[in-house]
Amino acid sequence: MKRGANILIKRKMGMTRRSFLMELGRRKGFRVESELSDSVTHIVAENNSYLEVLDWLKGQAVGDSSRFELLDISWFTACMEAGRPVDSEMKYRLVEQCQSPPLSTPELEMPAFIATKVSQYSCQRKTTLDNYNKKFTDAFEVMAENYEFKENEIFCLEFLRAASLLKSLPFSVTRMKDIQGLPCMGDQVRDIIEEIIEEGESSRVKEVLNDERYKAFKQFTSVFGVGVKTSEKWYRMGLRTVEEVKADKTLKLSKMQKAGFLYYEDLVSCVSKAEADAVSLIVKNTVCSFLPDALVTITGGFRRGKNIGHDIDFLITNPGPREDDELLHKVIDLWKKQGLLLYCDIIESTFVKEQLPSRKVDAMDHFQKCFAILKLYQPRVDNSTCNTSKKLGMAEVKDWKAIRVDLVITPFEQYAYALLGWTGSRQFGRDLRRYAAHERKMILDNHALYDRRKRIFLKSGSEEEIFAHLGLDYVQPWERNA
Ligand code: DCT
Ligand code: MG
């Protein structure tokens, strides 16, 4: 930032102050850019007049400069205090004053701060688990789920994107003005936000929550192995609850669904971080007993810092030159022998070398994998001397919990792509692929990144390299809770 025709020291001080304020803004969750770009919405200056900033803007080849709000530093300070963007009222605006124009072209190094427009892609936002807009995002997720049950993908995605966007905001939305200029805020979404602001709840969401079909589908899909198609079939048969399905002995259930009903209570109760750590130890020990150098990484929600989940996802790779196609089978066989395996479905790899990545946004990948249910023994906290499943008087004590575990085996050279994909969130992954396709003419999936213009595969040894290939700032796993 320029401080008039001042000497070097002052300018240096200016840069330090600028860095400090930029850092402060970023820490508070604002998007503060160091350079002017298309996404900039607000320009903040300190010690520069309206005319000086305007002159500087003219030299920046930005076209119509009226699209920026030119504000005084007092606006930025007010935002920092409020923890949210405050209205750019008159008192904060830089305005033309009766003063003579600067004698020479101002040599503005850079106007102070530039708060940028929020990106429509969640891979260009930081979304931690601190959600300041839960009452809105919960409502959107109900709407999205209802549209998913109706197989209306467009409306479903509209609500998922809106939920994801509000999760990334560093403040609670309290007025319609707060969402002005934000992407992903369609009419349906705005109506619900408005109603929640005014009434405290949304009548449309309430209607869905009381809807017979929604309630039945919600129950059915909570069973492992039951999706929308099966739910539709059962609903048409007049079934409405999990108990009714269980009681109907004429139904043909898949092996997966049978396990889903058998361990229903355990599986609907969430997996805790402590349980994830305990299972992680079992997986690592078993895998390393066969391949000591294997890399076992927990992915999914737990890698994003969540402390509960519906399952535990693992990625397994062998850094050595040799792959072991039998590893997964060996692990599963051992668990069977140890009596730890309650269910498993092994899917063999369908990966074909040199095949282009999948263009589908929600495509399954081709890795060898296993969807399993493990028996996790839990230490009982009681005074009895029995600490295993022994007869306690008349009652049998269950001292284990059924836990859903996904194991995915990846070749080492695809590991970074698999890690990025399996870390999620689902919405973050969708937006990464959408961004790659629409903004970079590249195709990304869990195996590779392909540059369509150059017609080459881009190799990556780490997630950081994938972001770099895509021209994106790196987003940490805990900032991917979109
Ligand atoms: N994923 C993927 N391909 C699949 C399934 C999942 O790339 N066939 C990605 C998307 C998210 C991530 O893997 C983990 O999936 P989930 O376990 O469904 O999601 P989660 O974020 O771990 O959520 P939860 O806490 O409910 O397990
Ligand atoms: Mg998971």
Automatic annotation (TrEMBL):
Organism: Ficedula albicollis (Collared flycatcher)
SUPFAM superfamilies, A to Z: BRCT domain, DNA polymerase beta, N-terminal domain-like, Nucleotidyltransferase, PsbU/PolX domain-like
Keywords of this entry: Magnesium, Metal-binding, Nucleotidyltransferase, Nucleus, Terminal addition, Transferase
Amino-acid positions noted as binding Mg(2+) in the UniProt annotation, renumbered to this chain: 311, 313, 406
One protein family per Pfam: HHH_8
GO terms, molecular function: DNA binding; DNA nucleotidylexotransferase activity; DNA-directed DNA polymerase activity; metal ion binding
GO biological process terms held by the UniProt record: DNA modification; double-strand break repair via nonhomologous end joining
A cellular component term, taken from the record's GO annotations: nucleoplasm
Protein name: DNA nucleotidylexotransferase
PROSITE patterns named in the record: BRCT, DNA_POLYMERASE_X
Reactions catalysed, as given in the entry: DNA(n) + a 2'-deoxyribonucleoside 5'-triphosphate = DNA(n+1) + diphosphate
EC numbers: 2.7.7.31
Family: Belongs to the DNA polymerase type-X family.
Function statement: Template-independent DNA polymerase which catalyzes the random addition of deoxynucleoside 5'-triphosphate to the 3'-end of a DNA initiator.
